[in-house]
Write a structure and sequence with these properties.
The structure is a homotrimer. With about 150 residues, chain A is α+β, with helices and mostly antiparallel strands. Chain A has three helices and six strands.
């Protein structure tokens, strides 16, 4: 896998700003972390109506050279790859989230496990998510997700 | 697996309330996240006395049709399934935590890996935790954990 | 694996202190969580210059009876075990972080997956990180990381 990095600065310093600004920042990061978890839960449940509302109207999902635009197309793309017999557990880990005003971005690692014929679940995919988020009136939404798979798969 | 969802609203908005309320909320969520991590560490260490203190006196653990009530019975149930040769690593991921006053709930995904005969650790179980928590005078405790395994296992 | 525990008290209570203190504490924990994620990203990318800056000048990395001291030696040790063909995905989970002034410590679980010859990624290592951190003028750094592998590997 080519090095996929955020290009941002180290980002390990504590934040500056007023209490109010810092509180907002912590709150926003929590909301985005929750949105990322919600993606996993709803995709793994095949709850497509709930997946759809996670995305901004002009959101993009890019994977393996394809880009779906808008919630309906995005759900269609995901659902085509997550038919009931192919479903399992998506896990997001090592997330680093940067909020800037009404937009945000994140880099995180993911992996996907599912049961196939054998006795034990298998790890099927590992990779990295590069995400952009946008603040909507009622909460944060995905603006763009790029899925980078690690290795041949 | 049937869709296991919290039934809560989307939950991706930033929080409202006074600074004090929001600070409490962030603090509580952190304490609960830590409690969930502590469960993994202590179970994987077979540190049963430390597992016991994670639970409220009237706590319930429900898995595979069994329900243990109270810390002693809960530890007994866990220990019976986590004998030394069966131990490994529990991981909690994708946690969404909702605090309401002195109680809270969470939905999260989990998986469990361990070494068996072969060279590499194997993923043995994947599933979802549905948790309820209660605030005790000295901190948060599990009030109820339901363990839902994904697929036949 | 022998029980590896932090020795700290239960740590599931909400925090005390003034708003300012608690805000600092939440901020610091977030910065450290981000540092831990950054370790995974940069090691998995083989981005050794970026790995180096994560460590204090007198930092220590201890694994399998070896201890490397200082960023250059630490990177050399990691790079020797993470040659391009051996790379994969490091995941940190179940992290419990304790901040005390300008130092902090954490206990967390980790696992490492990679592709080898077969069709699916394999879990190769599972274990626990015992970490110490120090606050530098521009942010938190690793002061010491002990890597404890679980089982024979």
């Amino acid at each position: 896998m080519p090095a996929i990095r955020t290009g941002e600065s180290l980002g390990v310093a504590s934040r500056h700003g007023t209490w109010s600004e810092r509180m907002h920042d912590l709150d926003d990061e929590r909301a985005i972390r929750r949105l990322m978890a919600r993606y996993c839960h709803t995709v793994d449940d095949g709850a497509w109506a709930e997946v759809a509302v996670l995305w901004a109207d002009d959101a993009e999902l890019a994977l393996r050279g394809e880009t779906a635009i808008g919630p309906a197309a995005i759900v269609k793309l995901i659902a085509s790859r997550q038919t009931p017999e192919l479903r399992g557990l998506h896990v997001i880990a090592n997330a680093i989230i940067e909020v800037e005003g009404d937009s945000a971005r994140a880099v995180s690692d993911f992996f996907f496990m599912r049961r196939e014929g054998g006795p034990d679940p298998l790890v099927k995919f590992i990779g990295r998510y590069l995400d952009r988020f946008v603040r909507a009136p009622d909460g944060w939404r995905f603006r763009r997700r790029e899925i980078h798979f690690r290795g041949s798969s």
